[in-house]
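Hey, resending since the last one bounced:
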Amino acid sequence: MRYELLVGLRYTRAKRRNRFISVISLISMAGIALGVAVLIVVLSVMNGFQKEVRERILGVASHVEITGLGGTLADWRSVARIATEHPRVLAAAPFVQAQGMLTAGGRARGVVVRGVLPEVEDRVTDIGSKMVSGRLDALSAGAYNIVLGADLSRALGVLPGDKLALIAPQGTVTPAGVIPRLRQFSVAGTFNVGFNEADAGLAIVHLEDAQRLYQLGSRVSGVRLKLDDLFAARSVAREILAKLGPDAFASDWTRSHANLFRAVQIEKRMMFIILTLIIAVAAFNVVSTLVMLVTDKQADIAILRTLGASPGSIMQIFVVHGALIGVVGTLLGVAGGVALGLNVETVVPALENALGFKFLAKDVYLIPDLPSEVQPPDVIGIAVVSLVLSLAATLYPSWRASRVNPAEALRYE
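The structure tokens again:
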């Protein structure tokens, strides 16, 4: 073992006369560990939140939507056939989407009405597997059944089997004036996808019922596609549009919810920068620790210099001491942060039960639970930043140690 490493490691062990410096070293080590752990947990929670929101949104939305001029498609079957020829497209389903108002028992709610074909809808969304009551295939042409989000059903005070009225905003012109189109529907079931916008504002009917109500004839609003890789949505949309011609338009999930995902990404970057300051503060503690250690060890430094140690060797001794604080603190922080990040979904409910309130309100944060996803690139990046800051903090005190004059240091010894 090189003597620089040996001496640097010996300085980390507490002695009776410099125990205070060792305590400061432990505090610095704990500060680095805490900063690393907090940063890993926060980024893991933000990763989990982004993933959870994306999955919940895409559970009721779609990877790609293809529409035509005026927001409708006349021949959706040919569009679906061309789209499914693409190797990355798993399924295609037509849909009608429009605004409406539901009324029941004196209560009214504005909703998004979606007309679907139940036999193909399960291929592009997860609504069929999220049914709380009833079944999606209870929707049949001409039966005028409707499936509601669970929150919407509670707001209207209706249960499966109850009747309600769906009012379309487009009116029918009569000699007496414009009369809104109204149709009575029977509630066939409810779903809960865990996404408040859908659970509280989406009503699903059969495609043909929606076409009749909104007077679309055989036209639909568009075709929804499910891909084998949701992150390829933008490129797949461009390739399909090239085959469909100029009368078709495509929108992928990254555009329809761009503001939400961009905001989460920006917040993640800003949190990384802000929380890195915790590690930087701990690194400043390393500077103060080494400055005090250099002051305390001036006689030792002078003796080593008189024995032939070069300034570079003296500098290496204190770099080893400071680097050890950084390495141990980083390893402890990574271990603690990863362990907590992997168990957030267990720890948070326990805290909620102990404190008696929920950290996340579903109507505010879109999801009711605090998710977490530990991503290795984030952990590696945080560890590298911590090690770099810790190593940089050792440079100035170590340089000061290498500049100690042996004669001055030993004058009063």
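The chain has two domains: 3-56+260-410, 62-256.

Sorry for the duplicate.
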